[in-house]
Amino acid sequence: TWNSALETNAQTHADKCIFSHSSDAYRSNVGEFSYAGENIYASSGTSLNVTIIVDDWYSEKSDYNYVTNTCTKVCGHYTQVVWANSTAIGCGVQFCPVLASSSMNNSYFVVCQYGP
């Protein structure tokens, strides 16, 4: 379910144009949620394709071990997308002429936050 508190929080972070996750403190007590999970993504170009973004996060599935509930590499984006307990999402996007903490310029910075 779309959640406006998560959306506002995600958009505020995206507006900063700094390619990094927001702090744990920033994601604490967001609306009805005591803590929000977060995925971030940067995309260069003149348009944004949400399907490609979600597919990229989902592609980490191959690094997830269901038996041990661990990752062989990075798979936190995947687990956040499919987490059974996540019931709400809110996303923000900002076009950043300069995306700090990255080598990308003229990029879209996407932030999605999940609750719980």
From TrEMBL:
Gene Ontology terms: cellular component: extracellular region
Domain SCP residues, every copy: 1-115
InterPro entries: Allrgn_V5/Tpx1_CS (IPR018244), CAP_dom (IPR014044), CAP_sf (IPR035940), CRISP-related (IPR001283), V5_allergen-like (IPR002413)
Signal peptide (residue range): none
Gene3D superfamilies the UniProt entry points to: CAP
Source taxon at top rank: Eukaryota
Protein's recorded name: SCP domain-containing protein
